[in-house]
Amino acid sequence: MRALRSKLTYANVISTLCLFLVLGGGAAVAAGQLGPNSVGTPQLKNAAVTGPKIKRASIETTKLTQLAISTLKGSAGPKGAKGATGAKGATGAKGDTGARGPAGPQGQQGLQGAAGNPGAFATVLVSPTVAFKGTHPGFTTVERAAPGIYCLTPTNGIDVSHPLASVNWLDSANTGLFVEPLAGGVSTCSAGKLEVHTFNLPKEPEPVPLASDGVSFTVFAPAG
Is 162 a residue whose pLDDT tops 50? Predict the structure, then answer.
């Protein structure tokens, strides 16, 4: 016994105790229930946890890596054909009228255009003297240049190259009267004036026009 005690050391005792625990006590622990947090990554062998050993719905996607999620999803298949257009839905009820929007800004008032030129017109009386009857816009003066020939002076902007004239029967004498405004020029009046000729057409012996100072007339000339 004395010889055995001389061989015992602290290291020998601890080694023997650890061997006993591994062979006997360790097996007893493994056979019973493990304590919480007693098994970690170092205690698990590679491929020790298989699919059948994992409880359904026990692993959340937040616990998986992006690579694992992509692997589980697999690659996307080809795009399917477009489905047929569905039937048109029923018309919905008419909505309420919306509130009236605010009035827009008032636009700038445009400039008033210049008054148009109505042209020139006048009635000329020949008895007892040559003169205008009433108003004569567009003409300033009228005079007799020769028997049956009258010259009217227009204002600026009056085109005397295309005049119109007619007999003023009420203020004329006799019958068979005729008036002719010269278009596009003058023969007796000065340039720029409107020249009007008046005639009497006797019935016998032949209707030859004769210059007459007894024909009153009305004349019109358009704006230039």
Answer: yes
pLDDT digits 0-9 by tens, 111-161: 775 566 789 999 999 988 999 999 999 999 999 999 999 999 999 989 999
Q: Give me 51's structure tokens.
A: 């699919």
Q: Are 189 and 195 in contact (CB under 8 A)?
A: yes
CA distance 196 to 219: 9
Question: For residue 102, what are its two tokens?
Answer: 């605010």
Domain extent listing, the chain: 120-221
CA–CA distance, 188 with 195 (Å, rounded to integer): 8
Phi and psi torsions of 80, nearest 5°: -75, 165
Answer whether 147's CB lies under 8 Å from 213's CB: yes
Secondary structure class of 181 (helix, strand, coil) = strand
Given a contact cutoff of 8 angstroms between Cβ atoms, the answer to whether 194 and 151 are in contact is yes
- Which runs of E-coded beta strand occur in 147-190? 149-154, 164-167, 177-181
Residue type at 147 in one-letter notation: P
Identity at 68, one-letter amino acid code: A
How far is the C-alpha of 175 from the C-alpha of 202, rounded, in Å? 8
Query: Do 194 and 163 form a contact (C-beta atoms < 8 A)?
Result: yes
Ramachandran angles phi, psi of 69, nearest 5°:
-65, -45
